[in-house]
Amino acid sequence: MLLAIDIGNTNTVFALFDANAPEKALNVWRLKTVAGKTEDEYAVHLTQLFSSQGVALDQISQVILASVVPDADAAMLRLCQKYFDIVPMIVGDKSLDLNIEINVDKPDEVGADRLVNAIAARASYDTPLIIVDFGTATTFDIVSAKGVYDGGIIAPGPNLSLEALYLAAAKLPKVDIKKPESVIGRNTVTAMQAGLYWGYVYMIDGLLSKLKQEMNEQDVTVIATGGLAQLFAGDIEAIDHIDQELTLDGLKEIYCLNKDNLQPKQKDVA
């Protein structure tokens, strides 16, 4: 089996695919990202999760990994070597073929998750594309009509903005992110929810409009992904598709591009 691992700032996602026919993930699990977690702690969690589906750790034949949390990488690499006897594919490794041109000033600085999303979207949807990822940061990524990764936008995500508001203003409480019944808040909680929800809706609407203008294309497909995509997408008319498996599908695509060059399993542990 193929294990795909996506280490994000908030959550780490583990997905199992049939390595011989990896069309869709067989199982997906999300754990909170904790930079100090050890490989043994990951193994305990995964053993329990795999066991619930009748899968053993030694059934993992290949691993592909994308990470935007450098402090979590070493433990994950040790997990792969110690418990799976595998040196994983790592998105960002220069030996890995991504099959996409990266048209930005410093290609090495583009987050692995953004490239993976672009690769997945290009494989499944018509170009040109804009991918909006509602994560810790809200990112907008551009794939041109020719299939080139053309950069994008990084903005604070809703949860990050909410946390900043709570920490910076002594009298403001923590609130849930939800769509309020009215734009006009009649108390502190609904006023905060209205500002956050509708502020993000119109920020995203406005940025999508400006991006489309600058791209100068007739028909641009807009894909939404990430934990809060479902919540916000209903009020953002420019969004054409919601695809919660986009990053995992991108990891699968990269695996398929590179599977013929895989290293054999090894037991050496760093």
Helical stretch tally: 7
> Architecture of the largest domain, according to CATH?
2-Layer Sandwich
The helix fraction, in percent, is 25-40%
Principal-axes shape call: globular
Strand content: 15-25%
Q: Which sequence of SSEs, written as H and E, runs from N to C?
A: EEEHEHEHEEEHHEHEH
Write the CATH fold name of the largest domain. Nucleotidyltransferase, domain 5
Query: What is the class of the largest domain in the CATH system?
Result: Alpha Beta
Rg for CA atoms = 20 Å
Quick one: biggest sheet? 5 strands, mixed
Low-confidence stretches: none
By helix and strand content, what is the structural category?
Answer: alpha/beta
- CATH homologous superfamily descriptor of the largest domain: ATPase, nucleotide binding domain
**N- to C-terminal distance:** 23 Å
* Number of individual domains: 2
Task: Explain what this protein looks like in three dimensions.
By secondary structure, this protein is an alpha/beta fold. The chain has two domains: 2-90, Nucleotidyltransferase, domain 5 (2-Layer Sandwich), CATH 3.30.420.40; 107-250, 2-Layer Sandwich (Nucleotidyltransferase, domain 5). Helix content is 37%, strand content 20%. The chain contains seven helices and ten strands. The chain has helices at residues 39-52, 70-84, 112-124, 158-168, 188-215, 229-233, 246-258, and strands at residues 2-7, 11-17, 27-32, 62-67, 89-90, 129-134, 137-143, 149-156, 221-225, 241-242. The chain has a five-stranded mixed sheet, sandwiched between helices. A five-stranded mixed sheet has the order 8-7-6-9-10. A hairpin with a 2-residue loop joins strand 6 (129-134) and strand 7 (137-143). The model has no long low-confidence stretch (mean pLDDT 91).
